[in-house]
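Re: that chain you flagged

S.,

Sorry for the slow reply, it's been a week of failed gels. I finally had a moment to sit down with the sequence you sent. For the record, here it is as I used it:
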Amino acid sequence: MLIELPEPVSMIFDSPEFATLATLQPDGQPHLSVVWVARDGHVLLMSTVRGRQKHRNLERDPRATVLVYPKANPYSYVEVRGTVTMTEQGGCELIDRLNLEYTGGDRYTMDDGTENIRVVIRLIPSKVIVL
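Prediction finished late last night. Pasting the structure tokens below so you have them in one place:
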């Protein structure tokens, strides 16, 4: 069930703050990745490449958590727990949008010349913790 992000939380995700995405390994151990994150309404958007560990973990078990502690106040944090859906549709557009927000660059070029297939991770919040 989707829960709404409170306005102060939405504002954090509207800023280029680095986030940590937690997924579950096959043996139950956590896998953590630093990611760029954006928002589509109350849904969090992240990008990955098909076949990477976080993609494989989320295909097997769609539960995930995103943690952000803002640069301006690193002793506070926002944790968003939920389940994800993934799609390749819009993958390149999302990574370009995130690249612009985080680096100011027009296009994300790290995938140029590769056969990487970009995937959009959509985290639907079921719990939000703010400290």
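What I noticed first: The longest helix spans residues 91-103.

Talk soon,
D.
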